Amino acid sequence: MADAPPEILELNVGGVHYATTRDTLLREPDSLPAAALADPEHPRDARGRIFFDRDGVLFRYVLDYLRDGGLVLPECFREHKRLAREARHYRLPGLENAVKEADPRPPNRERGCITVGYRGSFAFGRDGLADVKFRKLSRILVCGKVTLCRDVFGETLNESRDPDHGLADRYTSRFFLKHSFIEQAFDMLQEQGFKLTASCGSGTAGGAAELKPGVDSEENRWNHYNEFVFVRE
Q1: How confident is the model at residue 164 (pLDDT cuts 50, 70, 90)?
Q2: C-alpha angle 7-13-17 in degrees, rounded to nearest 5
């Protein structure tokens, strides 16, 4: 530390060490880092590094903001609220606003989960040998809190099997979609900030049981049921 040039400073943030320049810390004159640099009484560690008792990992974004005057977050970043709190502590209103603008989740959006399931098969041509028509879905089921389901699927949601009786905050397992395009359902969930967290699938074929009239034996052999759990935090 004693041999380092005076314009190079070392910081200790919650046990994580950083090196930066004096000009970087002074870039925002009203910020806590600038005040700490000017205050001889500010806490330092055993090696004389300026000490902040804060989240050492998130400080990298604070330091990036002081260096560049802007904010760039990883695509998978999910700690916007914590970083905004750090920005407030360091008295960096510009960074706090940038974090809030970068947060893809509206502040008042309801959290929760929605389960989407479907029973399907594969449609085959004659004798099961030709003219494969790929996936065949009979119905896409939607389960979850009613307000969330309506928020995501809107007019594409069929509520006829579970009509509204005026109950607040109720849940349902009997809604289904008016279309049979599972990828469209996934797109609508993604657009509303939901992420896929779990899925499962199983075969549902009846084996040697006698088929119902009009049911193709090959299609029956490929019957399956899949569920997908989506969460919005």
Answers
A1: confident
A2: 60
Residue 173 has pLDDT above 90, yes or no: yes
Q: Are strands 224-232 and 195-203 parallel, antiparallel or unpaired?
A: antiparallel
Q: What is the rounded CA–CA span in Å between residue 180 and residue 141?
A: 10
Write b or e for each residue in 197-229: b if 16 or more Cβ atoms lie within 10 A of its Cβ, otherwise e: eeeeeeeeeeeeeeeeeeebeebbebbeeeebb
Q: CA angle, corner 48, sides to 42 and 52, nearest 5?
A: 45
* Whether the predicted model's global pTM rises above the 0.85 cut: no
131 pLDDT higher than 80: no
β-strand pairing of 112-122 with 16-21? unpaired
Question: What mean pLDDT is predicted for residues 86-100?
Answer: 96
Eight-class DSSP state of 192: T
Hey, what amino acid is at 138? S
For residue 40, the model assigns a pLDDT of 92
Beta bridge partners of 177: 157
Output the six-digit token pair for 4.
């380092």
CB 150 within 8 A of CB 177: no
- Residues 200 and 116: their CA atoms lie apart, in Å, by 11
The DSSP-derived string for 181-228 is -HHHHHHHHHHTT-EEEEEEEEE---TTSPPPTT--HHHHHT-EEEEE
DSSP category for residue 210: P
When computed from its CA atoms, the radius of gyration of the chain, rounded to whole angstroms, is 28
Both tokens assigned to 231: 């969460």
